[in-house]
Fold these 4 entries.
Entry 1:
Amino acid sequence: MKIEEKFKELRDKKEKAFIPFLVAGDPNFEDSKEAFEVICKYGDIIEIGIPFSDPVADGLTIQKADFRALSSGITPIHAFKLAKELNMKFPNKPKVFLTYYNIIFKMGEEKFVKKCSEVGISGIIVPDLPIEECESLYKICKAYNIDLIFLVAPTTTEERLKKILKKASGFIYAVSVTGITGEREKIQEETKNFIKNLKEKCHLPVCVGFGISKREHIEEITKLADGAIVGSAIVKIIEKYCKNNKIENKEKFLKELEKFVKELKEGTKNKILERV
C-alpha cells in the first residue's frame, strides 16, 4: 500500500498516523517478527530499522537494539525477509525502511531499491544522506515508485528546506528536537512552533519523531502534525524482557507490547478536525 493512500484513508476516518519503529531482528529474527506483528495491528505505517554498527542519529536505546540484532547475525537480507513476510500478512500497512547509507552503498543503490520494491517496502528513510548528495538514489526511488523520506530539523535552513520539499515524497519526518533519538518528558513549545511553520510550507504530511514516548505526547503533537513516530519507548519493552538475545516470558512481553502500542494509537483518533 502506498503511503499517500494510507494518509487519505486516515483523513477519511478523522485520524492521524501512528508510526511505530522497531529494529529488524532485535533481539533475534523470530522474536522480532512476533513483535512486529503486534505493532502492525495498531500502527498505520510501520518503520523497520535495518541494524547498523554505527547508527549516528540514534540514542543509546536504539544503538543497543542494533547491537542485539547484529550479534544475533541479522543482516540486511533478514530485514528484507521480515518486510516481505509482514507485507504478506499486513498488506494494508505501508512499511518503510530506516537505513544508513553505507548499507545501500554496499548493496548498490538500484539493487537495494529494487529489492525494496519486491518485498513491499513503500518508503526509505536515510538519516545520513544529505539532500545535496541524494540525486542518484532519488531518481532510482522514483523509477521504482518508492518514497524517499527526508528528515527536517528545527535547525534546517530555508534554503535546504526548499531543496528537500522538491524531492521528498510520502511524508516529511520532522525531528522534534535537535540531537539523537530517545524519550523526552514533554513536548517543547519550540517544537510546536516548528511544526506549525513547517505545515505552512509543506505539501506533504508532516510526522514528528524523536522524543515521542507516550499517549499524551501523541495527543498533543497530532493536534498540529499528521502523525507521530515512536521508537525508543517501544524498543525499551524489548530491552526489558531480553536476556542473552532472547525474549523471556514471551506471553507477558507480547501482552505489555500490545497494550502499549494500542494506547499510543488511541492518541491519534478523532484529530482531523483539530488540524492546523
Entry 2:
Amino acid sequence: MPIIQTELELLALVALLAYLLGSIPFGIVITRALGLGDLRAIGSGNIGATNVLRTGNKGAALATLILDAAKGGIAVLIARATVGEDAAQLAGLAAFLGHLFPVWLGFKGGKGVATFLGTLIALAWPVGLAACGTWLVVAVISRISSLSALVAAALSSLWLLVFDRGQMLLLVVALTVLVYIRHWANLQRIKAGTEPKIGAKKA
C-alpha cells in the first residue's frame, strides 16, 4: 500500500466525496429517463449494466457500464491529481463502496464489477486492461457475466504482480473480497448450473 502522507482530515473528505460519486445509481437514472421502468423490478433487480441489458436496450446497458466504470476512475484520477497516491487508492475504495452501498437506495446497490474495473484502469491502466481482457475472454467462452467478473477479480492480484504494482495489492484484495461477497448468490447458481447467460431476460 502507498505511504500515508496526507492529513487524515483531507483523506476523510476525499473518501466522503468519492463515496457520494460512487453512490450515483446510473442504471436506475438511465432506465427511468428512457421510460424502461424501475430497474429494481426487472430481471435480477440489480442496478448494474447486465440487468439493464435485460430491458432489451443495449444502448442503456452500454451507457450504464461506462458511467459505472467512470465514477470509480474519475474518483481516483481527481484524488491523485489534487491530493496524492494515498488519496487515490482511498478514493477508489470509497467510490466502490458507494456503488455497493449507496445512501440514496437504502445502502442496497450493485455488485461493483464495472466500478471495480474502472477503478483498476485509473489506478494502473495495464492492470485494469488485463482485468478487462480476462472478463472478455471468460464472457466469450462462458456467456456468463458473473463468472467473468469473478475470474477477472480473482486474477487481478496476479496482474498486479505481473505489472509490478504490488503497492496496490491490499486495496485490490479488499475489492476482490467484496466482489465475491456481492456475488455469493451467483456463485451458488453457477455451481447449480442455473446462472443465466448474458442477455437473458430473466434472472
Entry 3:
Amino acid sequence: MLVVKNLRKKFGDVIAVDGISFEVKKNEVVALLGPNGSGKTTTLRAIVGLVLPDEGEIYVNGINALKEPKNARNFMSFLPQRISMYENLKVIEIIEFFRKIRNLPVQRVEYVIEMLKLSDILNKYASELSGGNVQRLGIAIAIMPDVPLLVLDEPTLSLDPEGVMRFKALLSDLKSEGKTILFTTHLLNEVDELADKVGILVNGKLITFEGASELKRKLKFESKVYLVISNMDDKFVDIAFDSGALDVKRNGTSMIIKADSKRMLDIIFKIKECGAKIENFQTSSQSFEVIYQKLMEEHHGEKS
C-alpha cells in the first residue's frame, strides 16, 4: 500500500529526514516513534504531498506520489499534528463542510458521528471545544473519506484516557474494515497494543523497522511474574536463579521473578516440580518505553 525509498529532506542546514526506507502492506497498522525533531512529521507530510523531499521515492497503492500527487492523494487521508478549526462554526457544520469538499455521500457524516461518538458535541461551536474534543473532530474528518490508507500524525495528542481507549477501539474497527494505517504517537507503551510494525526514528534516521513481536525478541525482551507460594521456601529462589532468572525478589509468601520472556514458563514449571504450591501468579511485560530507551542507547553507542 505504501513504499518509501531513500527519502531525504533538509531545511537549511538541518537534515530532517536522512535516507529512510520502509514499506507498509495492505491492512497493516504501523507506528513511527521518535523524540521531537526525529523526522516523523516531515516523513508523514512528504507522504501526503505537503513537503517536497530533496531525494527519494514514494509510492501509494502503486502510484508514484511525487510524479502523480493528485492521483496518489485519492487513496489516502491525513490527520495533521496540529488541528485548526473554524471557531465560528458548529461541529456538525464543520463535518458537513469537509464532506462537501471531498464530495462524499451523506452517509459518511453518520459514519464518523457514530465511530467517534460525537453526538454530544454536534451543536457546539469549535471555540467551545476542549483540546480532546478538537482532536476527536480532527480524527472524524480524517476518517471521513473512504480511502484505503490513513496517515495520522499524533492522533492521541490531547486525548484524555477515555479518548485514548476510544481511539484504540476505533483503530481496531478501521483495521477490521481493511484500512491501512500509518501513525505517529508519543504514547510508547501503547504501541504493542495498536501496531503490527514499529519504526523508530532518531535524528532523521530509521534505526529499526520491524514487527512489534520481533523487536521485543531481538532485544531479549524481559518480563516479570509475581508468584504467591503457600509453602514458600528460600530454595525456590535458588531454583529460579538456577533455571535462568535474571533477578528474584522474595517478600513473605510472594516472589517476583524477572527473566527473558521465552524462559519464564520453564522457570515457573521448574519451581512447581520442586514442590512449590503456587496459589496465584500474574505476569507483566516490559513496556515499549524501555525498549525505545535501549534502542536509543544502542544508536548513540554506534555513533560514538
Entry 4:
Amino acid sequence: MADRQAEIGVFGGSGFYSFLQHTEQVEVPTPYGDPSGPVVLGDVGGRSVAFLPRHGHDHQYPPHAINYRANVWAMKELGVSHIIGPCASGSLQADIGLGEFVVCDQYVDRTSGRRDTFYDGPQATHVSAADPYCPSIGRLLVEGCEELGIPVHDGGTVVVVQGPRFSTRAESRWFNQMGWHAINMTAYPECHLAREMEICYANISLITDYDVGLEGMPGVTPVSLAEVFEVFAQNNDRLRDLLFAVIPRIPSTQDSCGSALDGAVISGQ
C-alpha cells in the first residue's frame, strides 16, 4: 500500500476540488486498471482529502462505463478511511423538491453487468449490505445541512439505474409507488465496494429534477433543461459549503464500517 496521503475521500464533480487548497495530482495504479483519472489531493480544515471525479475530469465516462473498482481501490491505496459520495439525482416523491438533499440510508440496485465486488474467488466472501451507509457521516451531513439552511431529508432510499438511458414512465411510477425517494445512475456499486474495503461511506443525493413518472402529480410541474442546469449549479455551491463544514468534523476513528469483513469470509474445511 502507498504511504498514507489522505484521510477522507470525495467522489464527485469539479465544483468541489477547484476550491481545495495546496492541491497536487497523483496517479494511482490499481490491479483493476486505471481509475477515472488522477486523484487530486488537498486540505480542508486541516484534514487531508483525496478527490476523484467518478466520470473523469472531462466527464468522459458514462455511468455504466466507470471503473468503480479502480476508483475505490485508489482511495484505499491512499489511506482513505471515510468517503463521501454525492450524486446528482432525480426526485421520486412530490414532497422532495428541487435543490433539496437526501442523505440516503438505503439503496435499491437496478444496474446490470457492473463489476461490483473485489471478491471473485477462490475464497467466498459475503459482505453484509443490510445497512450500506455510514450512520456517523450521515448524521454529520444532516446536521451540516440544517446549520447551513440546506433543505435536507434525513434518510431515504436511492434507486440506482443502469444508464445511460433514463427510466420509462412505467418504471418511474413503479419506483414512486414503492415509496423510494431518489434516483440516479452512479450510487452503486461504489458504496458496496467501499464497504468491502472497510471504508466508511455516505451518499448525498442532490435533487436536480422530478423523475418522469411524477409528471402530472399534485405539486409537480414540468422542469426545463435550463432549470435543471440552474439547480445543478446551485447544488454544487451548497455541496461545496456542506463539505467544507462537515469534513473537519469527521472522526478519525471508524464505527462498524471498519469491521465489515468480520465473519464475511467462508473458510474451507
